[in-house]
Specification:
heterodimer, A: about 475 residues, mainly alpha, 2 domains, two-stranded antiparallel ribbon, 8 strands, about 70% helix, globular, disordered N terminus, B: about 350 residues, Formate dehydrogenase/DMSO reductase fold, 2 strands, about 0% strand, disordered C terminus
Chain lengths: ~475, ~350
């Protein structure tokens, strides 16, 4: 209403494109942090839960119960921020939905089912601790993990379709007249992109959780409970890290083959050439030359196709007209993000290797304080790497919203009030983000203060209503 | 085929109205429960009633949006272009509501509980109002076809939208009260059952009055819809009215069962009546479902997804609701101060373990 009442004053001068981009970026970058927790934390919780049941491990049980309680918060925030995205597809990009909704939407129709399943079973799992039998309760958690995997694959399939649009026929006026849903979902970019995000979800989730416990261990809380928490979460991340190196490498080669302009932006290649150096940092200047940075001769060519080595030709940015490729500024964003993602990914891989090798040869985790310090930062670093990766794929696709078919500027809403919705959304998300962290920290402090189980003798309550316990028992421990 | 998908869409909207709607309505009763002392017990009941189910119920909304944009993309583009403001407010309200509900149950200090509680409860009223206003804008033919924007203000600030918004808030509150009566009985809190029975009666009357007044508004402001409600959709309107009256009688007599089922059918039939009344149009008098429909391949995929939803999701919901009704989802695994700070008062919890009875 505000937008229209100010209309047609100065506000009309505010082009919605930049604001819409900013709002989409903000809401997606926020939501994507919650995705790994939604997908992989349930898996880690089930590992702890399994240990608890199989080996009567009380620390593991407490861990699973606490994690499930934290998950209740992160899942709720993830669910509602995900909903905003469904609104925004239409609110910010109505012409994209108008033209391509019938194809782009197909994977989401199936994602809905997985999301339903996830929401149903996460409720059963979180609230079923006391009165379901232990193994029934354990199994109620398994669908969360399965639905999380397939749900994220479905969403990424839709994003992959934007990179590799397929499975449709257009009529003379450019509108979609026929859709092959199978080809839409299983588009060329989908397998690797989905694998990359799925592994990222386990990698980021694992490092994120592990970093909390590494911090606790640095502060002297090195009891069995904290060690178990660290071992479970860090092991998940450590398994994911090397897999991610392989998947990421394959995906980069897919981009080289199928989205040469994005690849040129990633590798900072202004003109087509062979023996292309891998430039670390550095920037593209407005005149189309690369300055600064550390070039490693021939490496980009070699990595693009090892079979032809340094002779591999990499297509340059100038092979397409300026209006069909990212701007210089966007190229620099893509390239820098790429360096950040690969750099941090490599560091995290080395950290995982340190852990893995120590485990292999010494049957224990590394004892060095440096390792714990690195592990304590790994969560934030993994999140940054994931965000950087998302920037590479999204900004690298510019100016296209559907690669080669529709530009972002042709998809955007004509609504001039987006600047206002962006500001409000930014404030609300900032508040929600900060509060989420504060709330989780407060919970953790309370848990610590309360010590062990309140129901001391009945970690799993019997199916009768449990005998009342008195608050004073909290101090027993 | 587009008709089949339209039916799926309508069923999803009905499911969201009777399941998600009641969760919003519970927020309405939270908002109006009074100060921390007096409102403690109703708030506690609201909290325990919707805690395990609201997220699953909320997914219906996502499902609706996805079916709409996938199957009728032109309509979704027109709707989002025209109704940008109420949709953005609704989206923000959903974030505030879900997040603050999740936060509230994890904090101990009364001050924070009140802040989060207020955000939860206020947005629980705001969102259904926006939804109703959106429906009103669509149903009164204010959203043009062709993926173009209609009037960005009058499309949702108009008589039909006001009726839609107020009716949505009232119907949600009514449903929630009817559910909460049952929940209170189940949890053996007879005084709370009376508390919400009174509110169910009042809100039932409110819904009836709004609907009756709304009929006059629609006749003047939404001719096509009004004609539909008095012809094609008349059977659904009658079912809704009869069930509504039946539920009212049962509530008045304090009958032990039946009121909830009749209340649900009343609201479901009202939503169905809206759908029937504006058929065959997705955007009344400018765009039909068949004209807006996506190609056959897409519609087939959506129908397959719908069948899968029936096979997978419906049993899941049944399981969740049955477990919940039987009191098998009483609380989280771990005792936490925050679970027990809902203001000092005698409690009569039967299922959750912990500090009560001490």
């Amino acid at each position: 209403m505000l937008a229209t009442s100010l209309d047609p004053l100065a506000i009309t001068a505010l082009d919605p494109l930049g604001w819409a981009r900013a709002q989409m970026a903000l809401t997606l970058m926020f939501h994507i942090v919650l995705v790994p927790l939604g997908v992989s934390w349930a898996f880690m919780t089930l590992i702890a839960n399994y240990r608890a049941l199989k080996h009567h491990d009380r620390d593991a049980l407490m861990l699973a119960q606490r994690w499930s309680k934290y998950m209740a918060v992160t899942f709720a925030v993830g669910a509602v921020t995900g909903t905003v995205l469904s609104f925004e597809f239409g609110l910010l990009w109505p012409r994209f939905m108008d033209q391509w909704g019938e194809a782009f939407g197909v994977p989401f129709a199936f994602e809905g089912i997985f999301f339903f399943t996830e929401a149903i079973f996460i409720a059963i799992y979180i609230y079923g601790w006391r009165r379901l039998t232990p193994w029934t309760h354990f199994w109620s958690g398994v669908p969360i993990v399965v639905a999380g995997i397939f749900g994220s694959i479905s969403v990424v399939a839709a994003n992959a379709w934007m990179n590799a649009p397929a499975g449709f026929t257009t009529g003379p006026d450019g509108s979609v007249v026929a859709v092959d849903p199978v080809r839409v979902i299983f588009n060329d970019s989908m397998p690797l992109q989905a694998a990359h995000m799925l592994v990222a979800a386990y990698l980021v989730g694992g490092f994120l959780v592990a970093s909390v416990y590494a911090t606790a261990m640095l502060r002297g809380r090195t009891d069995r409970y904290h060690r178990s928490a660290f071992l479970i979460s860090f092991s998940v991340a450590a398994v994911a890290a090397p897999i991610q190196m392989g998947v990421g490498d394959s995906l980069a080669r897919w981009v080289y083959d199928n989205q040469p302009v994005k690849f040129a932006a990633i590798e900072l290649v202004p003109t087509t050439s062979s023996d292309v150096p891998e430039t670390l940092l550095g920037r593209l200047d407005a005149d189309g030359t690369v300055s600064g940075g550390i070039p490693i001769p021939g490496l980009a060519s070699w990595l693009s196709d090892p079979s032809t080595g340094r002779a591999t030709v990499v297509q340059g940015l100038d092979t397409v007209p300026p209006d069909a490729r990212p701007t210089v500024g966007q190229v620099n964003i893509v390239h820098l993000s790429w360096d950040v993602m690969v750099g941090l990914g490599t560091l995290l891989f080395l950290l995982a290797a340190w852990y893995g090798l120590t485990w292999l040869f010494r049957r224990r985790m590394p004892r060095s304080r440096l390792f714990l310090v690195a592990a304590a930062t790994s969560g934030v670093l993994a999140v940054i790497a994931m965000e950087a990766g998302w920037i590479v794929t999204e900004v690298g696709r510019q100016p296209w919203i559907v690669y080669g078919l529709m530009k972002v500027e042709d998809a955007v809403t004509g609504n001039t009030g987006v600047w206002l919705s962006f500001i409000v959304i930014a404030l609300v998300y900032l508040a929600v983000g900060i509060t989420t962290v504060l709330v989780l920290r407060a919970m953790s402090r309370r848990f610590r203060r309360a010590g062990g189980f309140v129901d001391h003798d009945a970690p799993y309550a019997p199916s009768e209503p449990p005998t009342p316990s008195v608050p004073e028992q909290e101090e027993v421990r | 085929m587009s008709t089949a998908v339209a039916v799926v869409l309508l069923v999803a909207v009905i499911a969201y109205a009777v399941l998600g709607g009641a969760d919003f309505g519970a927020g309405f009763w939270d908002l109006t429960a009074g100060g921390p002392q007096r409102g403690a017990r109703p708030r506690d009941l609201v909290e325990r009633a919707i805690r395990p189910v609201w997220e699953a119920n909320h997914v219906w909304l996502i499902f609706i949006l996805v079916i709409l944009w996938t199957s009728f993309p032109e309509a979704y583009a027109s709707i989002t272009l025209t109704l940008f403001v109420p949709m953005m407010i609704a989206a923000l309200g959903i974030v505030l509501r879900g997040a603050s509900f999740a936060f509230r149950k994890t904090v101990v200090a009364l001050r924070y509980r009140r802040i989060f509680g207020a955000a939860f409860a206020a947005s629980s009223v705001l969102v259904p109002y926006c939804m109703g206003a959106i429906v009103g804008g669509i149903a009164s033919g204010r959203v043009p076809a062709g993926g173009v924007a209609g009037d960005p203000a009058r499309s949702w600030i108009n008589p039909t939208s006001v009726v839609g918004g107020v009716l949505a808030v009232a119907a949600a509150a009514y449903l929630a009260a009817v559910y909460l009566v049952q929940d209170a009985r189940r949890l053996d809190e007879p005084d709370m059952a009376q508390h919400f029975r009174r509110r169910a009666l009042v809100s039932a009357v409110a819904v009836a009055v709004i609907a009756a007044a709304g009929a006059f508004v629609l006749r003047a402001d939404a001719g096509y819809l009004f004609d539909g409600l008095t012809s094609r959709a008349l059977p659904a309107v009658i079912v809704s009215g009869v069930c509504g009256v039946g539920a009212l009688v049962l509530l008045h007599r304090d009958a032990s069962r039946g009121a909830r089922a009749l209340g649900v059918v009343a609201v479901a039939a009202a939503v169905a009546a809206w759908g029937l009344a504006q058929s065959p149009y997705v955007l009344p008098e400018s765009l039909t479902f068949s004209a807006a429909a996506a190609p056959t391949g897409t519609l087939t995929a959506v129908l397959v997804a719908a069948v899968l939803a029936v096979v997978v999701v419906v049993p899941g919901f049944v399981l969740l609701f049955v477990l919940d009704r039987r009191g098998l989802l009483p609380a989280e695994g771990l005792e936490d101060e925050a679970d027990d700070v809902l203001e000092e008062r005698p409690r009569q919890r039967t299922h959750s373990s912990g500090h009560d009875g001490a």
